[in-house]
Write a structure and sequence with these properties.
It contains four helices and 14 strands. The protein is globular and about 50 Å long. Helices cover about 20% and strands about 40% of the residues. The chain is α+β, with helices and mostly antiparallel strands. The protein folds into two domains: about 40 residues; about 220 residues, Jelly Rolls (Sandwich). The structure holds calcium ion (CA). InterPro entries: Alginate_lyase_2, ConA-like_dom_sf.
């Protein structure tokens, strides 16, 4: 009897210890999984946790020149190229943009920049706009973020396997990036398709000439071709480009008639949760 009692006590103790160890093991396993998961999604999590969601009032407007009217509306910035109709020499369409002031411009190799924004797109079918770009000192461009309802093709599928629409004026917009390669030429990277009313979770980091662009979970990096007076622009640069043939309308005096002929009557790009960090060497 005593033996049976002791046996039960010993077995119960062993069971308790095993149970406790198992629990500890499960907890450790859970922690380990969390660590593995964080490592696997390090880049995504980094983008998620570093977004400070500032209001435009914290955005330093003294760094920027405005092409068109002040875009600030409450907590967001609204860029309407059809309303502002800003024309620049050698431009390819009406603009409404912010750009780094000329006296603050430096080579991309001399600055660390981190620009983030949620970019809502409300555009008529057939529209094509550049909504963010690193511009070279001359008329060239280094990085361009496009939203385009044109026939442009030649994109590889994104990492999720999605392909570009590449059909003109059907209300499905291809969102893509062009980066000028250091050795000449440029690469383009398809991010996603959207329809009017949807938004892009955009971020571009220039770490001394090494540019990383992200949106829709896609991440694209290049050491880019540089210019001594490079500068960032963002907003709405509405291309005067035929959506089917992709021929540009050269004369700015013809742009109003061109947009009307394509029934491009709405073109508002709204930036919210804007963040811009700039550290010049
Ligand atoms: Ca399309």
């Amino acid at each position: 009897m005593l033996y049976s009692f002791l046996r039960v006590v010993v077995l119960s103790f062993v069971a308790l210890v095993l149970c406790a160890c198992g629990g500890t093991s499960s907890a450790k396993k859970g922690t380990a999984n969390a660590i593995v998961s964080t490592t696997e999604n390090e880049q995504v999590n980094e983008f998620a946790t570093q977004n400070p969601h500032p209001t435009p009032s914290a955005f330093d407007m003294s760094d920027w020149d405005i092409e068109g009217a002040d875009p600030r509306v409450g907590e967001v910035m609204e860029f309407d190229a059809l309303r502002e109709q800003h024309v620049t020499p050698n431009g390819s369409g009406w603009r409404h943009e912010l750009k780094i002031k000329s006296e603050k411009r430096v080579a991309m190799t001399d600055v660390y920049e981190d620009f983030q924004a949620n970019i809502k797109v409300e555009m008529s079918d057939g529209s094509k706009a550049i909504v963010a770009q690193h511009h070279a000192g001359d008329t060239g461009t280094i990085m361009k973020l496009y939203v385009s309802d044109t026939s442009e093709a030649g994109f590889s599928a994104n990492t999720a396997g999605a392909t570009s629409d590449s059909v003109a004026s059907n209300g499905i917009f291809d969102v893509y990036v062009r980066l000028a390669r250091e050795g000449g030429g440029e690469d383009k990277h398809f991010l996603s398709t959207i329809i009017s009313g949807q938004a892009i979770d955009f971020r571009v980091i220039n770490d001394h000439g090494f540019v990383t662009v992200s949106g829709f979970g896609e991440v694209f990096s290049r050491t880019v071709k540089d210019s001594a007076k490079s500068y960032l622009k963002f907003g709405n640069y509405l291309q005067a480009q035929h959506p089917q043939t992709r021929e540009n309308v050269e004369n700015s005096e013809d742009w109003a008639a061109f947009y009307a002929s394509q029934n491009i009557i709405e073109n508002v790009i709204t930036f919210s949760d804007i963040s811009y960090q700039r550290l010049v060497d």
